[in-house]
Structure formats: structure tokens, C-alpha cells
Amino acid sequence: MDFAYDGTTEELRKRLLEFMDECVYPAEEAFEWQAAESGWTAPPMLADLQAEARGRGLWNLFLPGEYGAGLTNLQYAPLAEIMGRSPRIAPPATNCAAPDTGNMELLATFGSAWQRDRWLRPLLDGEIRSAFAMTEPEVASSDATNIATSIVRDGDEYVINGRKWFASGAMNPRCAIFIVMGKTAQEGPEHRRQSMVLVPRDTPGVTVERGMHVFGYTDGDHGGHAEVRFEDVRVPVDHLVGEEGGGFAIAQARLGPGRIHHCMRLIGMAERAIELMCRRALARVAFGKQVAQQGVVQDWIAESRVKVEQLRLLVLKTAWLMDTVGNRGAHTEIQAIKIATPRDVEWILDKAIQVHGAGGVSQDFPLAGLWAAARTLRLADGPDEVHKRSLARRELKKYLTVE
Amino acid sequence: MDFAYDGTTEELRKRLLEFMDECVYPAEEAFEWQAAESGWTAPPMLADLQAEARGRGLWNLFLPGEYGAGLTNLQYAPLAEIMGRSPRIAPPATNCAAPDTGNMELLATFGSAWQRDRWLRPLLDGEIRSAFAMTEPEVASSDATNIATSIVRDGDEYVINGRKWFASGAMNPRCAIFIVMGKTAQEGPEHRRQSMVLVPRDTPGVTVERGMHVFGYTDGDHGGHAEVRFEDVRVPVDHLVGEEGGGFAIAQARLGPGRIHHCMRLIGMAERAIELMCRRALARVAFGKQVAQQGVVQDWIAESRVKVEQLRLLVLKTAWLMDTVGNRGAHTEIQAIKIATPRDVEWILDKAIQVHGAGGVSQDFPLAGLWAAARTLRLADGPDEVHKRSLARRELKKYLTVE
Amino acid sequence: MDFAYDGTTEELRKRLLEFMDECVYPAEEAFEWQAAESGWTAPPMLADLQAEARGRGLWNLFLPGEYGAGLTNLQYAPLAEIMGRSPRIAPPATNCAAPDTGNMELLATFGSAWQRDRWLRPLLDGEIRSAFAMTEPEVASSDATNIATSIVRDGDEYVINGRKWFASGAMNPRCAIFIVMGKTAQEGPEHRRQSMVLVPRDTPGVTVERGMHVFGYTDGDHGGHAEVRFEDVRVPVDHLVGEEGGGFAIAQARLGPGRIHHCMRLIGMAERAIELMCRRALARVAFGKQVAQQGVVQDWIAESRVKVEQLRLLVLKTAWLMDTVGNRGAHTEIQAIKIATPRDVEWILDKAIQVHGAGGVSQDFPLAGLWAAARTLRLADGPDEVHKRSLARRELKKYLTVE
Amino acid sequence: MDFAYDGTTEELRKRLLEFMDECVYPAEEAFEWQAAESGWTAPPMLADLQAEARGRGLWNLFLPGEYGAGLTNLQYAPLAEIMGRSPRIAPPATNCAAPDTGNMELLATFGSAWQRDRWLRPLLDGEIRSAFAMTEPEVASSDATNIATSIVRDGDEYVINGRKWFASGAMNPRCAIFIVMGKTAQEGPEHRRQSMVLVPRDTPGVTVERGMHVFGYTDGDHGGHAEVRFEDVRVPVDHLVGEEGGGFAIAQARLGPGRIHHCMRLIGMAERAIELMCRRALARVAFGKQVAQQGVVQDWIAESRVKVEQLRLLVLKTAWLMDTVGNRGAHTEIQAIKIATPRDVEWILDKAIQVHGAGGVSQDFPLAGLWAAARTLRLADGPDEVHKRSLARRELKKYLTVE
């Protein structure tokens, strides 16, 4: 047992920290101004930051294997954490932003040769963006068997009909490809009825209807969260990802890394919040003493530190398990970090906001926006309650087999 | 001891509930659409709703005494709760919306005859709106002695210099009058250095700079929350409210009713959330059963009901105390409801959001917006921590005198 | 709506507060010493306190109707609260201690004339004590249909077989009568299979086996919490309470008042805890300042006050409902106070303990013992979770009928 | 970074798990019976268990260096966790029980040659037991500068006067030696006024007055928690541990490992609680379904698992830090585990109790006793609040130096 990062990780951390200090933090204020003017696309300055990051060897760090930087999850985790300190800039600047990360990993793992050539390559180069269209407005989508969008084979084509929402990034015109989950069978085993198809944005019958808000935020610089209508949308059968009936399994495979990436970044968000909370508490005076000297504020700071240390270790161990025993073997831990991280980071952000007073809820600090992101992750990729139920059942099973 | 509402209250509750059913709830969807187009002003449909409410005798219900409906706090409380069920429409429709309510009460109590004639009358008629400019971006404003805006007498005028933010309603061009808190003395007893002056919006030197966001919301239909700069702003000395050095006392007097009104409406918001949570849980199926049958969801519903019942009783008792022993005598209870209500209602809203899944954080349900309002009230009008500190000291004093 | 106590209540409060100051608090230390020597019976000094209380007209205050003091629940509530400040002495001294209170009310309501004459009269006079034998070690007794003890009619007798535990008071040799819940039918409607019979302690086949501990406490002065075995125990058929199959309904009727009495006393326990917490915090110094000046301790004191005020109001309203619409009409509120009171008072006691340091968990302060009592009430008379489930279903039903 | 235990640890874990299965768990019931009869001493069966453990090479595992098993903290941690599953038997059976562990480490580190020969040797052999007398009833002892016991040099002797309580183990007649913290100077630097002396139990002037209770438990098998009076107690000057004025530093050094040992065992207690909770939930039926199928119970089980995984990792990392950068370098982490572990394990025990119903608070399951131990650790060795204050200050300092 050893709690020190390896040499590769330390070297990349150093390089990434320099990039943050030299390029990312100094860009934050201007990014906000540009974002306010950019509608559903990324601020123009992002392109320069991407070039800079790529030049520094900070590109596609999330992707294991031949197509990406080839890091293990355990090596990537502390880097994703650092990116999470400025989560609207650092991840896209390094081409490590959701949902593209998950989509690239999906294409690298399950995509056919031509799919990889046609869609993965430009994604790896940051030329296009992508969306993952799974959640539907009409059903409780946390139960994937509820998915109602139909994908019906008709000759050499699949015909898609349905309605999706919260397809993150899809409002962005540069978002060229949608991965759509739907039902190819109405019968058979419940988890073998779903399939995934690639649907280019410009396919007839695709209508990007509107951007969903998240606590008042549109997340426009990120491409928003779109509601999309699919009406008699036709794609050739070679647009199927993997095999027919494999949609559920692919979704599960995609969500494992996706969840841990979110959690890594959340920890960086929490560290940012603690820093802001401390600085503000030191800078303000109320009722005759520094806010930092208030016992209750000290209590929050201490609790925040204790929570973050625990979360980071659990995320790192989960990454190590994914590397050593595989995503399936790390299933319980992935659920555990998905339960613990968003809600604890939400708590920390709430306290940082409170220390900032009215400023904390406003656009003058990143805290309220980060809070909305953390809160949303308590229900995105499956609400906490679904993960807890599943984790509990696994725990209970230990004692069923024993007796 | 008797827990039944009196006849006047019951009659008004009935009338108000009818107004909600017949006019307010049916208007909610269109209100959103209009609000999205109305910038910093109220949607046009509000005028009709106001006329309707006034015609039904539902006007200025909040204001005790000769200028308003003459209800006691105990009588108004259950009405404010009902309004809180649709808090963006019902309060302004009945001319019972903050900050105008507090400003009207302030003018009715402390304003001179001409001030009442010039500003109170059009406010009572809903012709203009008003803002209360107290919080400052540069200092911890929860400690009123930190207020830095200067109000210096120069002959027959006061000269005002300073910067305020979160002046709710002030982005609205119809917001004609600002009540500004500042320092008229740099020496003397700490709580006698502040004064309040009336500053008409169009006075030279007044610059309404920008609207502050609250978790991504601009609250434009409400007139937003403005940052305002005062540079060598001059008003005649008769624009002083009350006496020089009386600002702190007036602010305290204003905040008592203001806080209880917020709490009353929050309870209505919580009831709305419980209703939405139940309806959604009954309407959705996941993992083979109704969401309403999930034990954890039932737990949330039960907790929500238990919390709301307790909050309502504490608010009602506080109203009764304000009526019977005065705002000062109800000081501890006012602090208690200010502490308990926003955070408990925030909790309920969070659970209602979770039951709604992704929809819960979006613009398709009122929950995320209500949540932002409840969260903000944990720091508006003084953060919880300040109230708790004060309440604890009062409790401790009981035992100091005994020993 | 009126939040003031009526004249009768105020007069009795005054009289009871004097009794507490003059007789109960001064007796506490000696009571502990005697209790340590008294095994399973009350300390000898209790008899004198009972005589004193009775002489002051403070006797059987809990019992409405002709047999008791004739107070309403609303009038009794604040008196029970006061008793709860010294819960091991004041309730038995005034013959208002559980489980005798519930048993007396049960006999007064459902007992036959001879049952009342034989058992109620000596209970009203404090000559004997009684036990309620419902919970069983072998089944989840929160679901009354699980009760397995059999009561089989055989000619003019009922034959009882089964095992009960946590029969409070039953270790005391002066506990002369057990009210035993069992099954008289194995078929028919689920809630009509249970009956209650009176079983005198000295009936052959009754074995009081041992006292159950509660977090290390035996509660010997209270008669402990007994495990009792019933083997072919025979009682005449006139020992049936009410009718055959009426056991469940009687249990429900008994538990309503029982639960509210517990909650009233818990509030008194909480007030005692707040007083002790404040006094200790004022008396100790750590790290250069009074513990009472620590922000976190002030936070606890404030939260405690806010919680107690809310709980008291909810309990009082519930009492008022029981008086005005009956126990059934107050069902939701009875559940609400049963959920909220033990856990909130437990929280307050926990904080009072923490302020006392090591002393807090010891026998030198009443806090740890009170804590154990509050904790146990989270599962006695049905665990919180059962009440929450039931309360949630009732809430959900509102929306089922509407739609 | 590597999360796997090393070979030594794995081998010892295996051996210890066998000892638990073969000797400890089977002895638990009889241990309770013997403990009930053993007053302030360990049950007689403990001697056999000690012989067995020693024979299996499971002895003094806690002690690094030449005198003990020579394990690192990181190697000992998972073993202490296993012992914590049966915390009243396994630690004393392996001579790894507090407070002897801390006292042995103290003597090994700071004791003179004769002190080690006279007291450490028999402790290592389990022939005697020892007590640590630090906490005083009259002062807030969490602030060590409050310690009032005086240690005055008089020629070749120290004269000790004072009163201590919660000296764990000291009621046991076999507890032969007390390590007493007191003040040797009334002036000079605040943390250089304290010293520690060894006081044999039979020294004239030592009076072991009474055993303090912990939530009704006497912990007699453990030697209880004594209040001890020191009146003109005289010991030769060679009974001083370390140097005069070194008491505070020694106490700090002692508390580091002591705290981590407690936390390791607490994690084992939590694992035991989860097992009991799952087994009970699977074994009982209420309202027509297994308790294990109740959503709320599943929620508790999941939360328990998530909490335990996080706690274990933080404890292990802290052990690793103590091994690699020393106790001082691990200061923040030691505080973090001291804050997080007792309260989270308390939470888990509370839920396990709730699932057990009335049985959970009784002597029939270990849960209530474990709960009392966990609760007490929230204030023993310094209350949480002191650790949080200190941890927060350290966090804040990061930003003081930066700016």
C-alpha cells in the first residue's frame, strides 16, 4: 500500500498546474464576458487555449489506450481534479470535457473502423463536438428499460422516432454527431432490447428544439442541454454502434468512466471552493472580528477539508480498482463515489456561498454555478437513490450466500 | 389557546383561494412566456391580474393600519402563505410583493406627510415600484455598522456617495424611488450613525449599473437585483426618512415584518413543492413500481409534511406575538422563523426536485426557481449565523441573571 | 387563533412549578442514591413525594373524564412538559407515569365495571402499578399483525401462551396487573384477530424472567423493562378487555394519548438540557474564553431553542385536535410529533452532553440517561419509519382522489 | 499509488481472522455472562484467550520497534480493524487494548531504562494493567493548560495533589501503575508547565474513589473509568517520565497513535454493525415484506458502506503518513480521522440499532454498547470541536502566507 503518485502523474500534474496558473485562471474573467455573448457556442478564446494545451502535451489525457494519452485511471484522476478547479475552461481546453470524453471512449471501444475514422478522429482533434441522447422527458429514465425512443430496422436503414432532453452540448452547431439510445426490440430480455445508433446532426427529421435550463443557467458555452425531437429519422445500418441489443451494456460501460471523471472534477471544484471560502473569510470583518475567526465558519472549513480528503481517496481507490480489476469489479466503488461526491461537494459549495453572502449566489463568483453543476450530478447519470438501492442489494447478498 | 383561524381570515382565505384557482394558476404558463420577453419589467398580463385582485378586495392585505387592509399579522399570515404558492404572480397581483411591502410599511410608519403623499400613495395604488438599497458589495453588510455609503449634509441638501447591490426591483424602470441607507455620522454611538434618505431614480448621479444574478436567474419580472452607484447624488433634506441617526432603528423595524412575510410565503412554496412531489411520484414508474411507493420517497414526503406543520405554527405564533406584544417582544421568534423556514423549505424543494429528475432543475417546473429563492433567504436580511448568534446570546442571558 | 394558556392551565402550571422547585429538584440527588439501592422498585422517598403532590392537588392530571383530574389534552400538555424536566421523579410523584397512565386510560375507557373496580381504583390511588405486554422478542412487533402470543378460549377461561419483552415496570413486585395483547383468532380480518386480557402477576404460568437493559440502564426505579414468559396461563373470561377481536383497536386508542404524553415530557427534557447546556457553557473556560462564547456552542443553543419552540407548538396543536376532533382526527399530527420529537430532543441532549465533556456521558448529570430515553422513543410505540410510511401514504392519497 | 496490503499484512490478517472465527466470536456470549459477575476485573476466560493469541503470534501487534511486533502503522491498521469487530475481547486478548497500548508506547519512547524494566516489561507480558490519568472533573480538560493537578518537587520526591476522572482501567485491582499528568510549574511557557509522573497504585494518598458510568455502562470488564484522588502522594523523582515540563509534548505524542488505534477499531465496529444490520433486516418481516426490502433500510445500508469505505481509506492514509513523515507530519490527517470516524460510526450503529428495534438498545446485541463507545470517542482525547478549530486554522494559514 502506497499513497504517493507515480512519476508520470507527478510530471503531468506539474505541467498541468503551470498551464492552470499561466493560462486558465488568468482567462476566467474574459471567458465569462465572451460566454455572455457567445450564445450556444464556446467563447472564441477557447481555440487559443486548446492550441496552447495541445502544444504543452496536455491533450486527450482522459483516454487510455492507443487513441489517447494512454494514462491509467489512477494517473488521470489527479489531473482531472486539477481541471475541475476551473471546470468551464480547463476540460474543454485539454479536450477532456464531457460528454465528448465518454463519447470518444465509447467510439474507441465499440465503434467500427469507419465510425472511428469518421467521428472519433475529428473528436480527438477537437474539430467537432458530440452529444449523448439518452434521457427522455416522458419517462423515468434512471430505469433504462423505460427508454421509449424507437429504432426500427427498415431495409438497410434504421428509422428513429422519439424525444430526448438534456442532451448536453447539443445546442452547439459544432456538435456534429448524436449517439442515440433507443429500443430496437419490444420483446426479449429486458436489457437486450436497447441499441445505440449514430445520428449526424444534419439528418432530416432531427430537430434541436430548445435548451433546458439548470437552476437558471443555460450552460451556453458548453453547448447547453438540448431537447431534441427525432421524427422518422433514417440512418444507414452501419450507424449502429456495436450490436443490436447491446445498447444497455454499452451505456453501462460508458457510464463507469463518465461517473469517475465527474467525481474527479468535483473534487477540484471543492478545493476551489475551500480556497475561495478561506480567502473571503480572511478578507471580511463582521461584528468586530474577521469572519475567519467565527467558530461556525471554522467548523465549515474543517468539515470541508475532512470531506474532500475522504472523497479523493475513495475516487483514487476506485480508479485503481478500474485499472486492476476492471470497471465491473469496481462497480460498488463507482456507485459509492457517485453517491458521496456530488452531495458532499454540494455541501462545501453551499458553505462557501454562505461565507460570500449575497455575492456567493451571484455571477461575480463561480460558486453558484459550480453548485448548480454539483446539485445536478446528484440526479444525472442516475439519481443517488438508484445507486444506493443497488449498492445495498449487493451488500445484503453477502449475507444471503453465507447463510 | 385556540388553533382555528378567525372569521375574517377564513373569509379572506376563501376569496384568495378562489382567485388563485381562477386567475393565478391558469396564468402561470403564459406568465413565463411573457417574462422571458419582458426584460426587467413585469409581464404585461400582470396589470390585468392586479385589476382583478383589487376588484375582489384582495389588495394591500399586508398593511396594517389605515393605509392598508388593516389586518393583523396573524390574519395576514395564512393569506401570505397562499400567495407563496405562486410567488412570482400572486404577491405582485395583490400589491403584496417585497420589497414594496416593507417600503410601504416604512413610509406609513416613519414617512412625513409629504413623503407619504408623494411616494406612499402611488405605491399603494401599484402605480410605481420602489427599492431598498442597503447591502453593499465592499463590506459584510450583515453587520449594519459596516455600511460605508456616506450621506453628508450640505446646506439644504444631503450628498450621497456609495455603491449598493442586490437592490431588488431596481432594474425595473418603473421603480421610481430608492430608500438608501448610509452613514450621516462617523462618530457617536455605533447604531446612531446611520440614516435613510429617499432618492428618486432620476436624480443626477444615480447609475443603475447591472442586474445581479441569483443562481443563474435574473428575476427580471421582479425588476431584478441591481447594483447601483451613487456619485455626488443630491436630495433636499426633506428626503430624510425619520430623523438623522435613526437609520438603524428604522431598518430593524422594517426587517421584522419583512422577515415574517418571507417566511409565510416560503411555507406556501413548500406546500406547492409537496403537491408537485406527490403528483410526480404518483405519475412515474421506475424499476417496476410507482415512484410514490419507494420507501425513500415516502420518507421525504413525510418529513416534508412534518417540517411544514412545525414551521407554520411557529410563524403563526410569531405573528400573534407581533400583534400582542409588538415586534420587539417577538424578536426571538422572528429570528427563529428566519433561521428555520428558509433552510427547511430549501430541503423540501431539494427533495421535490430530486423526485422530478432532470425536469426538476429545469424551467419546466417552478421548483429550481423556488429553490434559488429559498436558498437566497438563508443569507438575505442577515445570514442564519448572525441570527443564531443573537438568539443564543439571549438564551444564555437567562442564566446569567439567575446566577 | 390564540396562543395563550387558559386560566386553569396557568393556575396548575404555577402550582406544579412550585412543587418542582420545592420538592422535586431538591430530591434529585438523594433519589439517585436511593435508586442505586432499590433494585427493581421505586426509591422509598417516592411515597412521601406522592403524598405531597396529592395534597397539592397534583394527582392524576393526565386523565380526562370523571376518574381523573378532568383536564383536556391541551390543558395537560404544558403540565406534562414541566414534569418532563425531572422525568424519573415528577411523573410517578403525581401518578402520571407511563405505562400506568395509558393503562388507566384504557381501563377507564374499555374496562368493565368490575375491572375498573378491581384494577383501575388501586391504580388511581397509586397503590399498585401495571404493565402493558405487547412487544415480542421473536417478531417485528411494530407490525401488530405479527404478534404471536396465543389467547385461546377454553370453557370459561382464556389460556395464554407466549413471550413478551420490554414490558416496562413489570420487574417491580408492586406491578400487580399485566395487560396482555395476543391472538384469539388465526383467521378473519387481520386487525380483528387480536384481543387483550388482564393477567394478574401471580397467576400460575407467568414468569418474569429478566430485566432488559436500555443502553446500559436497567431503569430499576421505574420497575425495569421485563421479559415475561406466559405458559398455559389461565384467566377467567371476564378478564377480557372490551370484546374479542378488539385488541388492535384498543391498542391504537391507547397509543394516541401515550405518544403525546411522551412527547410532552420530552419537551421538558429538552428544556432541562438547554438549561444545563447554557449553565455549563457559562461556567467553563477553554482556550482562553468561556465555552459559551464559542460560535459552535452558540449555534447549538440557538438550534435547540428553535427546535423546542417548533416541537411544543406542534404538540399543543395536536392536543387541541385530539380535544376538538378526536384521536382519529389527530392521527397525522400524532404521527408527526412521534417522528419529530424524540429525534430532535435526542439531538439537543447530544449537544448538551458534548458541552459537558466526559461528565455528560456519566452518572453525574442526568443527560446521558435522558438521551437513552429519547433514543429509545425513536423505536418504542412503533419506529419512526413506520409512522413516516403511514403519514406519507395519507399525504399521497390527497392527490389520488383529486385526479 | 497502490491500494493492496503487503504480504506481512495479508499473512497476519489471515491469522487474526482465524483467531476471531475460532476463538473470539464463539467466546462472546460466555464473556458477557462472566463479565456480569466479574466486577471491575476482566472475565477469567480472558487469560486463556491471551495464551492462545500469544501462541498464535498475535501479541503486542500495535507496538512498533524492538519491544513489540515491529509493524508499521499501515500494517497494524487493518489488524486493529479486525480486532474492533469484537472490541471487548480481541484487543485485550492480543494485548492490544487501550489504554495499555498508549502507555506502553509512551514508556517505550520516553521511559528510562528502569521504568521500562519495572513497568513496560510486565505490561508487554500482560501481567499488569495501567491507567492514564489526565482528565479532571473540575476543568475543561480538552485544553491541557487547564490541568490543575499539582506535582511539586520536594527534595528527592514529587508530591502530587489533585483529582482525576475517567482514568480508564483504573478500577481494576490489577491496574498497577498510573501515569499522571500535572503541573510542575505555574509560570513559564504555557505548554512547558506540565509533567508526567508514574504513580504506583498502592502509593499512600492514592484513592480510587468510584467508577464513572458511560451511558449506564460501567465497562467493568475493562477496569471501568475511575475517579481518583491524589492527596500528598509522594513518588521518588526517578518516577518522572521524560523531563520536567515535557508533559504536554509527551501527551501529544501519546495521543497520535492512540487516536488512530481508536479509529481503526471503530471501523471494525462499523463493519460488525453493518453485518448485524443486514442479517437482521433479512431475518425479519413487517407489513408484508422483508425488512431488507424497505427502501429506507437499504438507504442506511448503502450509506453505511459508503461511509466505511471512506473512513478506512483516510485512516490507512494517515497510518502511511505517520510511517513516512512522522506523527507531526500527519497531524491534520490524525485530526481528520478523529473528527470523522467516531461520528460516522456512531451514525451506522444508530441505524443498526433501529433495524433491531427494542433488541437493539438491549444487552442481547452488542450494538448499544458499541454505540456508547463510539459516542464517547466524540469527546474523549479532545472533543471534535477542538480538533475542527485546530484543523481550520491550519487550512486558513495556507492563504495567509500566500497573500
TrEMBL record, chains A, B, C, D:
Molecular function GO labels: acyl-CoA dehydrogenase activity; flavin adenine dinucleotide binding
All copies of domain Acyl-CoA oxidase/dehydrogenase middle, residue ranges: 131-233
Alphabetized InterPro entries for the sequence: Acyl-CoA_dehydrogenase, Acyl-CoA_Oxase/DH_mid-dom, Acyl-CoA_Oxase/DH_mid-dom_sf, AcylCo_DH-like_C, AcylCo_DH/oxidase_C, AcylCoA_DH/ox_N, AcylCoA_DH/ox_N_sf, AcylCoA_DH/oxidase_NM_dom_sf
GO cellular component: cytoplasm
Family per similarity comment: Belongs to the acyl-CoA dehydrogenase family.
Quaternary assembly: Homodimer.
Name listed for the protein in its UniProt record: Acyl-CoA dehydrogenase
Gene name as annotated: acd
